Amino acid sequence: MSQKAKSGESESNEEIGFFDHLDELRNRIIYAFLGVLAACIITGIFIDPLMNIVLLQPASKANISLQNLKPFGVPLLYFKVVFLSGLIIAFPWVLYQLWKFIAPGLYEHERNWVAKITFFTSLCFMVGVAFAYFVMIPTMLEFAASFGTKLIRTDIDVTEYFGFMTMMLLASGLIFEMPMLAFILAKIGVVNAKMLRKYWRHAIIAILIIAAIITPTPDPVNQLFFAIPLVILYEISIIVARLAYKKKEDPEEIN
Questions:
Q1: Residue 201: other Cβ atoms inside 10 A
Q2: Which one of 32, 37, 86, 231 has the fewest CB atoms closer than 10 angstroms to its CB?
Q3: What does each C-alpha distance from 121 to 93, 133, 134, 176 come to in angstroms?
Q4: Secondary structure class of 203 (helix, strand, coil)
Q5: b/e string for 230-241 if b means 16 or more Cβ within 10 A?
Q6: What is the DSSP letter of 106?
Q7: Residue 111 and residue 179: Cα distance in Å, rounded?
Q8: Rounded distance, CA 22 to CA 15, Å?
């Protein structure tokens, strides 16, 4: 009887622990959602300067005319801009909530480097978004506006323009996470710098394929605008993987 009672008590404790994790996950999702909501409210307050100074500025500088072709295209566009801007601003907060959820299950030395990963992951994402906005998007739009005969005026549907901006900003932000991904994979022993260097040619082919898929036009110029940063990021990832692997072998780091 006592063994059955202990067994039942153990199963009960495991069940309570499982539901505790579910409750913690629910709380973190709620906190992340509230953070995104707060960021959306802030961007909604400043929606006019956000539209005129931030979103429409690249098209204006490239002398590209935007037009609305849908009855409720402009209101929907405003809602999309508010949500996307709020999501980008709240990205560090969402990552922080993810970190708070997984932190209790980690060792002390793992918490140290995971906390740093959270910071640098947010930083890499923001740098990627900034790179796309200040470098890639203006260059692509200027090329699109200046290409071909002057007898053809470049008018773009504002919905298509926003889709282009969204895809480039998010894709660039996520792709700039490549060094952090290499750090994590090297830290857990999945990859190392030697392996990444060995498959360098395969990576170049994969990068060109990714650039061809992500870029909105089939011309090689825009694809190169996207592929060159990817090659540089891959080289940085090799260096990061080498540093992460050395730290992993450091006995002080392990202890």
A1: 8
A2: 37
A3: 12, 19, 20, 9
A4: helix
A5: bbebbeebbebb
A6: S
A7: 19
A8: 11
